[in-house]
């Protein structure tokens, strides 16, 4: 897990679900292909809900992150984008 963004309103975490297996496959230690699985968890701290993006949603969000790295947006611009993704959030955040 890697924290990508943290503010009073949002937290974004990059989750590499099978990073160990992908690394092993890349070095030839395992038999057969291993598809990388990763995603992004966006927590809306204001509502106490989170959304997990994987698959094509994760790819789309990864492109957004790459654009932010090139363009250096303001915090307001980042949070406006996160707000759109957070509108998908249905899962309440539960502390374990």
UniProtKB/TrEMBL annotation:
Record protein name field: DUF3567 domain-containing protein
InterPro entries found in the cross-reference section: DUF3567
One Pfam entry name: DUF3567
